[in-house]
Amino acid sequence: MIKIAESQKDIQDGLNIRKTVFVEEQGVSIDAEIDEFENVSKHVVLYHNDKPAAVGRFRNYKNGYAKVERVAVLKPYREFGYGKDVMNFINQKASEYGYKGTVLNGQSHAKGFYEKLGYKTEGEEFLEENIPHYFMKLTF
Q1: How confident is the model at residue 44 (pLDDT cuts 50, 70, 90)?
Q2: Domain range holding 58?
Q3: What is the pLDDT of residue 13?
Q4: Is 0.85 topped by the overall pTM?
């Protein structure tokens, strides 16, 4: 099951995934991970047999685009295609909300993943939280 998190439990499930993947596995500080956009973002959580497995969020960006952020899948679920499911769900919802596309700062190791979903790289590689990223855009 995949859904937009509306209950406090769903929101906390998503935060727990992000803490595991970004803070514990990748070394991002908790202060950087939990940011000023938490309350203005739509948080998406994917459940595998009622257990939280993957997360992502999107929010208003600029020029008619939504920004996708904090896409993460817990290790035991990384071979199920759940990252793709989260991205497809977010893009579907963004389209339904009237956005003309989505943008994201994708980690460089995931560039190919996003390209397979139709994203195009714009600009050069850059560091965010000491992790290489690319700015990428998908127009619906």
Answers
A1: very high
A2: 2-139
A3: 98
A4: yes
